[in-house]
Amino acid sequence: MKNLKKFAALGLVGAMTLGLMGSTSVMAAGDTSEINGSHVFMFKSVGNAFGVIMYDGFSSYMEQVGENSTEKSPAETTVAAQVQLLDEAITQGAKSISISTNGDTGFDEVFAKAQESNIPIVSVDSKASADYRVTHNNQASTADIGAMQVRAAVMIVLGVPFDEADKSMESTVEAALADYDGEEIKIGVLSAGIDTPVQNGWIAEMEKELSKDMYAGKVSPELDKKYGDDEATKSTTQAQAFLAEGNVDVIISPTTVGIAAAGEVLTQAGSDIKLTGLGLPSEMAPYMPASADDDEFSFVCPYMMLWDVSHLGASTAAIQMAIQNDGFDGSEGSTVTMQAWGDYEEETFTAEADEDGGTGVLTGIPYVFDKNNMAEWVDKL
After folding, report:
1. For the chain, which domains are there?
2. Spatial contact of 263 and 300, defined as CB atoms under 8 Å apart
3. In the beta sheet, which residues pair with residue 367?
């Protein structure tokens, strides 16, 4: 993960606090209360820490290039709530729309309205339909995220530390399983909504990973899936269900809300069930090792992963600016140039064909947080 020290300079801790207290629409500095002429950023729900940090990067980049931005995220994690706010944003003259969708379907009418109004749609984190988006901003490849979460889960059950020399963990988990002759390891997944595209894509890749020969007879190919809808209360209830059922050895939660809820439930219960997935160090600190001297396996979550969330927001803004100023149309092979931002030098991203018939731009990679780096990031992300 490249030059993440920019988080401190951007004051993300303060941004998170402000975002968690905010309403359904948060204006960037210098904006009026009108959407007219602003670039709209919409996450799954207002106050979600992941979305707050992403918007911080988005608005920071827009401010740097002299553009106004607005966050307009719904109170409820539903397609209907997003559609209502999208319709309002289009009617009020949004300059562009960047969105992490709450589902695969239900957006056609409002996205068509945006197209008719010449408002470009870029999806990020969770895809919008290829029929309506210019492109999708991928934080990391779907295959890598899904496979790496499975590998981390298996290694944690086996008591194998993360090795920085094997960032993908593939050779490490293969070697560990070769020596394993215990009972079949069972994995649970605490995801967001049952129809959330991004998590479902990662889960599909988890299942593909588990179909490899090295897992046969050693790790169950069946994932026990539960859904918390990215709501803290529901995610807590689902984590408690895993605890009560006692059917899994480890939980993967590919959502910052779910992993924090599971961390609290498992820690309070003193459970032997372990945890990994995608989380924010600031939210996961109570459940993870804090220094290299700690025994990571005495904590419920020995290690987890994420990516540079603020950069993901900034690169989404750069894509919108490339559409506005450089004729970027999202076609395969077309490129986006992102200005130097924070500690990042100028970058170029290329649109590549996606399996849904649209294109995607890859702007990040998974990064593992463990006992050797948690202290560095707990106050920054």
Report:
1. 6-139+308-364 (3.40.50.2300), 142-306 (3.40.50.2300)
2. yes
3. 306
How far lies 229's CA from each of 226, 241, 310, in Å?
9, 15, 23
Residue 24 CA: distances (Å) to CA of 19, 46, 204, 230, 235: 10, 6, 32, 16, 22
Between strands 274-277 and 304-306, the pairing is unpaired
Q: What are phi and psi for residue 364, nearest 5 degrees?
A: -160, 180
Give per-residue pLDDT as tens, 251-304. Answer: 999 999 999 999 999 999 999 999 999 999 999 999 999 999 999 999 999 999
DSSP-derived letter for residue 44 is S
193-231 in b/e form (b: 16+ CB < 10 A) is bebbbbbbbbbebbeebbebebbeebbbeebbbbbbbbb
Cβ 276 vs Cβ 304: under 8 Å: yes
Residues 226-244: tens digit of each pLDDT: 999 999 999 999 999 999 9
* Tokens 């998170």, located at residue: 16
Instruction: Evaluate whether 78 touches 90 at the Cβ level (below 8 Å).
Output: no
Helix ranges (H only) for the chain are: 6-10, 12-21, 49-64, 79-91, 108-116, 142-157, 170-178, 197-210, 232-245, 256-269, 281-284, 309-326, 374-377
Token pair, residue 206, equals 């988890």
CB atoms within 10 A of CB 365: 18
pLDDT in tens, 298-315: 999 999 999 889 999 999
CA distances 323 to 97, 142, 207, Å, are 12, 24, 36
pLDDT at position 13, please?
32
Q: Alpha carbon of 175 to those of 80, 218, 369: distances in Å?
A: 47, 13, 22
Model pTM score? 0.76
**β-bridge partners, 138:** 362
